[in-house]
Amino acid sequence: MIALYLTIFISLILALVFLVLFLSSVRNGQFEDSYTPSVRMLFEDEFNLEKQEPEIENNNDK
Amino acid sequence: MEKQKFYYDDKITKLFAWATVVWGVTAFTVGLMVAYFYWFPHYTNGISWLSYGRLRPLHTNAAIFAFVGNGIFAGVYYSTQRLLKTRMASDLLSKIHFWGWQLIIVLAAITLPLGLNSSKEYAELEWPIDILVALVWVAFTVNLIWTVVIRRVRHIYVAIWFYLSTAVTIAMLYIFNNLELPATLTKSYSVYSGVEDAVVQWWYGHNAVAFFLTTPILGLMYYFVPKAANRPIYSYRLSIIHFWTLIFIYIWAGPHHLLYSAVPEWAQMLGTIMSFMLIFPSWGGMINGLLTLRGAWDKVREDPILKMFVVAITSYGMSTFEGPMLSFKSLNAIAHFTDWIVAHVHVGTLGWNGFIVMGMLYWMIPRLYKTKLYSVKLANQHFWIATLGILLYVIPMYIAGWTQALMWKQFNPDGTLKYGEFMDTVTQILPLHYIRAIGGTLYFIGSLMLVYNLVKTAQGHTVEDTMAEAAPLKPIPAARQSGEDFHNWLERRGVLFTVLALIATAIGGAVEIIPTIFIDSNIPKIAAVKPYTPLEVEGRDIYIREGCNNCHSQMIRPFRSEVERYGPYSKAGEYVYDHPFLWGSKRTGPDLFREGGKRPNLWHFNHMFKPASMMYGSIMPNYQWIVKDDLNTSDIQAKMKTLKTLGVPYSDNDIANAQQAIDKQAKAIAADLEANGVEKTEQYAKAYNGQKVDLSKKEIVALIAYLQRLGTDTTKKVETAKN
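^ inputs. structure came back:
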């Protein structure tokens, strides 16, 4: 059953990659703020140079 | 810091969005064609490239990779740029990704109906297209990671994590499952055989569901649901926990597709345990999504987009509850091979994937075109008709699955099977299949309403790249960097780390994989099991070409009911020469693993030409071209050489004399058919217009040779039971 060990090996490596990513992102402070990202993503900083259709900014509330 | 002005690439989003619409309708159309085969089995009579076995892979591939795939990419390109406050890193890579992906879909739509397929579910494409998929996927992955690198926001929003895990994991899974050795340009054999091929296939198959149909859709959920509701996600912390637990557990659940099969018990148990654990992150995510709408339920009443999202998230919850339950052996014993699984899958695809993607399109297209949706009312009607369609699809399929499974297992007091004729269990559930087709039709009609609505929305408007401004990322102060060692420096570079880790993985994987191709497997060999003869190899390739494995399994589980119905249960050692494995995952027709010797050659000849003539009420389509067409054996030596490289013990002599062996075996079968009066049958007269033909040159003879060989190596002494 080499295939079983193969799939387990690859799965472990993948898990390891994700573990390293997880630990490094924790250390980088990615998860220190567990509130503002959820609010910040609601705001757009797009703008229309001509400002032809100002209502598009508020499409969310329609 | 000075703000920078830049443009989001909205044109690529637009392309992916319209591709989603076009391929969505295509996938639903092919799905309907497949569903209506249960109602009118012969409506494409005689057209080989419109037959059930070839269209079913086209349907699954179109739904997964063309419809949901393009939908994912549209959402990823739209949200990634906005979340990271930067344009995609490379317009060229974006374009390669888009056009490459569409090319793959077109090639799939041509090759699958032609019968060019590798038989492995959701990985049916032949090797040249597989290579193209890998290259295009790499373009996407590089572009995504590069965009993360040049971002203007330090924090990476949770949706991006989901996208990254998809990109990295699918690349790995796809490559390892599609390791195959080409025999010709259009034919290859899986490097794994039998049980091992099954393990790798379902490790891939399950994770295609996990990392193609779930994680990216969750990313879309975490972006578009808050956007559409204009509410922050209920708990950002929960979303982080959801992500990390999900990806660490998901990859281990594959063996639950192989419970009670010839796969080792401990691997099955591992799959069950991990599958059960999956319910926790999945339900955390579902609750997080639904609670995001707290205080916004009044909007749900009005807004078709939010309605779709609510049903989608609920469907996610239902299928991720059902999945772990189905992974328990006691329930799996009933559900496996039945329509229950079809229902389970369609709750996920029609409900979860379909509604997230279509809700997203309704939200995104008006914003891309800087206008309003043409008709909210029409979108609401779409929602209701599609939801009704889902219910009419899945409820009959659940009932059909339970009914048939219980009928299969029903015994008479004297110990014989109550429904010994498989056909009886099919006839019983056919009305449910008709309702399913109607449900699918409603869902399809809904998708046409979406097309009309979106086209009308876009009419008269154009998509211009959106301008935005944001400050560039501040570099990390020198004070924090001074005195750090190499490892700290590396750790701060998450992306670099990922790339390095992946290269290391790929090398490690290659080192691991190459020996498995060339050394003997440690599957217990059974001395009586011999390689297929050249004619049987050709017959097996016809079986693969026609997609017989879509309806017929080749795996008898160790249950009294199955042993009674089909014969001795399957052992791992009986599959050692099966490149690829053909266990199947659904029994629309009976299992064929012990088909060899059960019925005369003439029965198969007549049955293949017109199944209903041999089995009253049969819904198997007619495969008349197999009877009519000449067998092409020109590639047999290339095929045998390839199989030999993969460890099938053909001698040089076997390969050199392959054609003679084919002629000899084919003539024997043809002589048997003639001795039993094939020329007097109605089928023969119809197939050859009353002419006398050399049967030994026809494809049907190869297929009969293969079918008569199935499962006979170990049972030669006991095969008199039914004959």
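Residues 49-62 of chain A have pLDDT under 50 and may be disordered. Residues 21 and 27 of chain A are 10 Å apart (CA to CA).
thumbs up if we can close this ticket
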